[in-house]
Each structure stands twice: as structure tokens, then as C-alpha cells.
Amino acid sequence: MLLGRVARMYYEHGLTHQEIADTLGVSRIRVTRLLAEARETGVVEIIVHVEESLFADDERDLAAAFGLRQVWISPSVADEQKAARAFASVGAEALAAKLEPDAVVALGLSTAVALVAEEFPDHPLAASFVPVAGSVSGLVNGANPHELALAFARRTNGRAFHLPAPLLAASPEAAAASLADPGVREVLELAARADTLVAGIGGTARGQGLLLSSLGDAERERLLADGAVGDLAGRFFDADGDAVHGALDARVVGLGLDELRAIPNRLGIARGETKLAALRTALSSGLVNLLVTDSDTARALLAG
Amino acid sequence: MLLGRVARMYYEHGLTHQEIADTLGVSRIRVTRLLAEARETGVVEIIVHVEESLFADDERDLAAAFGLRQVWISPSVADEQKAARAFASVGAEALAAKLEPDAVVALGLSTAVALVAEEFPDHPLAASFVPVAGSVSGLVNGANPHELALAFARRTNGRAFHLPAPLLAASPEAAAASLADPGVREVLELAARADTLVAGIGGTARGQGLLLSSLGDAERERLLADGAVGDLAGRFFDADGDAVHGALDARVVGLGLDELRAIPNRLGIARGETKLAALRTALSSGLVNLLVTDSDTARALLAG
DNA sequence: GGGGATCGTGTACATTTGTTCACAGGAATG
DNA sequence: CATTCCTGTGAACAAATGTACACGATCCCC
After folding, report:
1. Given A201, B91, B170, B227, which is the most exposed site by the fewest CB atoms within 10 A?
2. What is the reported pLDDT for B299?
3. Which residues contact A225 (CB under 8 A, 6 or more apart)?
4. A117 and A197 part of one domain
5. For the Sugar-binding domain, which residue ranges apply (chains A, B) (predicted)?
6. How far is Cα of residue A145 from the mean position of the Cα atoms in its chain?
7. Do B70 and B125 belong together in one domain?
8. Do A99 and A22 fall into the same domain?
9. Which residues of the protein have their beta carbon within 7 Å of strand D?
């Protein structure tokens, strides 16, 4: 158990990597790596005994300003990679806090949610994870709803459901056909009865989000003309938070905005300047009642 | 609660000191210090989940070779300060392992024991701490038996006893007078009934230990001539582990070697080349049956 | 048995962390 | 009111830690 000896020498006796390497007859770099492994595998556990959250003030203020049930804020950092991980881990914390054993969780398609899945701690609570919309083909990272559900299910020892349909059908008719499929229908019905929705919130800037980037400019213009300011789990909404019906909307295979709104816990996960407008609407119109964002976005929302 | 926020940003989100400083608007150096404080005060707790001890093999071997009940080994490091702290913390661990609630602990005068007291964790078990010998005047650090007992008592919410007498009386007659004092007698009687003795083991090299360094060269030569190889809690012993009686011994105010030997748990705390001979004798003659030492000393003992 | 991927390793470097020092403000003391 | 002694602060430096890269071994597949 070299790992354990190294970990104890470092954390309990305060020796340096070099000193440990010398007494144990291995290279310093190896000690460095063993220590990293010890932290990752949980051999070394670091607990911060603090009840209050990092941005308690802003969280309280945001909840009050938009009538939200609870808000979680992650620290914004210049290093984007680090910021993303921190954001995801706060998202995971938020979801874990709302998740009860045997819960049914509806999952929106979103890179943010995918990152949360990565960071989700291994807690066996046997929940069910259900996509609220179909898959996008040609996704590089595993952000497809099904994979996402699988990732969550693996970590919670729960069940993952598959929605055998595309997010965006070729035509309204094709979408209707998909929705009529018993396999699709069943899963969507389950999603509609979920206790908790976890979804990203998308803006309308070019190239934003998984759905928009798969569309052409023409379709995007039409959406904007129809008053769209953002989307929640594949459904666009206008400045009042009402659904933007139209050619695009009819092609989406998934729960409608009203069905999403009927889910009791609606956790929105989003950050960044490009999402501010969409966020403001989603929050003030009650599309989501739980929010995970980062400190910069939080401050911008409060300032607005 | 700046401390807590900093600690969480660092340990839970992996931000660097600089990044934390930027988001919180304080200097990086302040973050560094807050983090150190968080670790010291226990706001941040680091647990290494490893059952086996660092030098399990050597500990087993040493116990077998000298017929000891248990052995604890701390890592030897070039950095003397660090080595001393590691040694002391292992000593504290050892003592804590042997200490039961309401135990009576006899304390030998020794810098090693003093360091252990510093590192002793705050565990309320209401033990009594009793010196086995009188005080040395003009000690810089707080290694006097009474202070030592106080330090332990404070950390365990226990009781400290004071032996109102010098370690070394001016004459055998003065020592006898001290011993006849009811206050002294009472405390020593309590010490003799202790469950556990904690004492350093001293060598006979010049300047070694608190007792020897307070003697002149002549007295040291006499001791050597009488066959002394080391001391335990102020009492010198010869190569057989028997007491070296004589002018010096008669002036010591404290428990005799036989009384010390009658204490069930006898924890010896010593390390270093200069103590090897004394240690060998103390171990093989059964003066102590529990040992705390460092890895270099352990290896030397095993090699001999 | 050769080619290629993969893993573990250490070197050299970049980054992060910790420490020393000198200074400034504020409380205690003359 | 001046002086001294703190305590807390950051700048500059020293040390420790982490990372990119390149090398060699091993395993696997052809």
C-alpha cells in the first residue's frame, strides 16, 4: 500500500514530495502522482466544515428578486476550464440536494447538464433518469440525452430511459409520427410526471447551444422574428416566457413548455453573458424555480 | 466567514490562491494565510483512509525482537524540525491509543515528552497527569514536569498534579527531606499507581538530556564508571537495566527504577544515534514495553 | 517477429505555494 | 502626547508542486 504510506506522510506528517520520495526510494514525480491518485480515489478525503455556502448573499438576493425556491452560485474564474468544473460541481451539489430516493428526474439536452453528470457524486439512491427530448446526431461529447441519463444512472445506481427519437424531426409530420410511437410516448409520459427537471437554458445568439447550432441562419431569423429570447430543454420561449409556436417547434420531439412547467422542481443550469436575456425571462416567468449559475452571471442578473 | 469561503474555493473547487484572491478582492498572501489557518483550526479536515501504519513491518519486527507490546515508528527526515514534529505526533498517537478515560499517567521529564504534549489532540477523557520527578530550574522551553502535566491536562480536560520539589536536590539529605514532605509523597504515590508511564530515554553522551546537562563532567564520569548506559525518567541504569545507585541517584527526587518498572504500560519515547545503546538496554531489559521511535533508529535497532 | 498503440516513467520547465522581511497602523504604556 | 510594542499586511524571494514532453518498455494485433 504505497499509496497510503505516501498519503499519510504527506498529509499527516507534512513531509514534502521530495522527502517522501527519498525515504521510500521512489522518484519525486511518482509521489506527486500517487498523491493525486489518493485524492481522486478518495483515499484522502478533505472536508471543509462550513455550513454557509460560498455566495450566500447573492443566492439569497437572487432567490428573492425572481421568486425562486433556491439558488446555487459557483465562483467565476478567468480559467474557463476551471470555471466549468466548479460550475458543474455546484450543479451536481444542487441536484443532489433536491434528489430523493426513487425520484424521477427529467433531463434536458444541454452541455451544462452533461458536465453536471460528470461531476455527480456516487450516491446510490436508485433514481430514474428520463430525457425530455430526442437525441442529436453527430454530437462529439457524450451530451446526448440517453448517454446523459446513463451517466446519472450509473452514479446513482438508478435507471436510465432512452427516448428513441431525434430531437428535431425532418418535418412536423415526422415529429408527429415519432410522438405517436408507443416507445416514445411512454418515456415522455414518464418524463412529464417527473419530480425534478434538470435543464440548461439557451440564448438566441448564433451558434448558441446544441439546438440552435444545428439550425440554419434562416430558421434562426424566423425564431427571432417570432419573439424568441431563449430555450429551455429544446423549447423556445418569448419575452413573456410563453412558447414560440411555429415550424421549428412543431418538429421538436419532446415535452412542450407547459408540460415542463408542470414539473414541480425545475432546476435551470446556465451561466454566461450570452444567456442573460434568456435567463431573466426564464426566471421571472417562473419557467424554472431553482437556479444554478456562476457569480458573474448572478451579479449581472441582480444588477439588471 | 471569509475563512470558510476561501477554504471551499480552494479545496472544493480547486481554484488557486491567486484566483481566490481576485474574486474575493484580497491579496493572494492573505488567502495563503487564511488557508493555513483553516487547516490549523480544523475548519479544513484531511482524512487519510488507511488502516495500516506507515512502517508496519519494522514495527512488527521491533516488537518481536525486543518482546515489546507495541511499537510506533515515525518517518525520519533530513529536516530536523519536521522530523521532530512527525516524531511528536506519532508519540501523541501512541499515547492516545493507550489512554483510557480517567487513566492516571505518569510523566517523565524529557524534551521528547514535552513535544508530544504539544501535538496531543484535544480529546476530553479526563485523565490525571502526574510527574514522576521534580522540576529543573531555568528551563527555557516549557519542559518542566508540571507544565507538561498542565499541557496534557488542558488538552484532555483532565487533572494536572504538581510535584513541589527539584529534580536534583543539593544533597542526599535534602532529597530525603523533600521525599518526606507530604505534598511530595502524595503525588509520588499517585504516580507509582499510574496505569501508564510516558518517558524519554536518555543516553550518556555529554550534554545529552535535561538531567545530564545540568551536571558537571566529574559527576558524569562517575556515572560512567559506575556502569551507567542511560536513564529513564531521571534514573540511570546499567547494561543489565539495573539501577545505578550512588551519590547522584540519592539526590534525585522521584520514583525509583523499580517503581517505574511496576507501572503496567511503560511508553518509551526516544530516537537518535546517541540513544541507541540506552535504548537497546531499556528495551531488552524490559524497562519499557511500548516504544515510539523514528525509522532510522528503528532500523539501527533491528540491525544491531 | 515487426509495427503500433499504450502505459508508466523521469526530465525540464512553468506554475503555484510558502516564507522572510520590512513597513504601517493601532493599542498599551510611559 | 510621545514611545514602544504589537499585530497584521504585502513585496520579493525561495521552495515546493504540477505539467508537457519525450523516452523506453510492454502488450497486442497483424
Report:
1. B170
2. 95
3. none
4. yes
5. 59-303
6. 11
7. yes
8. no
9. A 10, 16-18, 28-29, 32-33, 35-36; B 26-27, 29-30, 33
Same domain as B86, residue B21? no
Residue found by looking up cell 484532555 in the block: B156
pTM assigned to the model: 0.86
* B108: CATH: 3.40.50.1360
Could you say which DSSP state residue A78 is in? S
- Specify whether A298 is located in the same domain as A269: yes
C-alpha cell at B141: 522551553
DSSP B189-250: HHHHT-SEEEEEEE--STT-STTGGGS-HHHHHHHHHTTEEEEETTEEEETTS-B--SHHHH
Q: Is residue B47 part of a domain?
A: no
- Which cell is A246 given? 411555429
The answer, yes or no, to whether residue A142 has pLDDT greater than 70, is no
Q: Tell which phi-psi region holds residue A236, choosing left (phi > 0), alpha (psi between -120 and 50) or beta.
A: beta
- Could you identify the residue whose CA is nearest to the C1' atom of nucleotide C17? B32
- Measured CA to CA in angstroms, residue A287 lies from A230, A233, A290, B117 at distances of 11, 11, 9, 60
Which has the closest alpha carbon to A279: A231, A228, A227?
Answer: A231
Q: Does B96 touch chain A (CB under 8 A)?
A: no
Rounded CA–C1' distance between A112 and C5, in angstroms = 33
Give yes or no: residues B139 and B230 share one domain.
Answer: yes
Same domain, A187 and A291: yes
Interface test with B, best of A51, A55, A77, A79 (most B CBs within 10 A): A77
Which nucleotides along chain C are within 7 A of a protein C-beta? 9-12, 15-20
Give the contacts of A253 (CB within 8 A, at least 6 positions apart). A133, A134, A163, A165, A166, A167, A168, A169, A175, A178, A179, A184
Shortest distance between the Cα of B50 and any Cα of chain A, in A, equals 6
Which residue range(s) make up the domain with A267? 56-303
Task: Note whether residue A51 is domain-resident.
Answer: no
Q: What tens digit of pLDDT does each residue of B12-27 get?
A: 999 999 999 999 999 9
Q: Does residue B259 belong to any structural domain of this protein? A: yes
CB contact under 8 A, B50 and A9: no
Under DSSP, the state recorded for A138 is T
| A188 occurs within a structural domain | yes
Helix (H) or strand (E) holding A279: helix A276-284
The SS3 of residue B290 is strand
Q: How would residue A138 be classed by pLDDT, with cut points 50, 70 and 90? A: low
CATH code (residue A23): 1.10.10.10
> Cβ A4–B50 below 8 Å, yes or no?
yes
- Report whether B64 contacts B56 (CB < 8 A): no
Total number of domains in chain A: 2
How close are the terminal C-alpha atoms of chain A, in Å? 55
Same domain, B17 and B160: no
10-residue averages of pLDDT along chain B (304 residues): 92 94 92 93 93 91 96 93 92 92 89 88 86 75 74 87 87 90 90 95 79 74 89 92 88 93 96 94 95 96 89
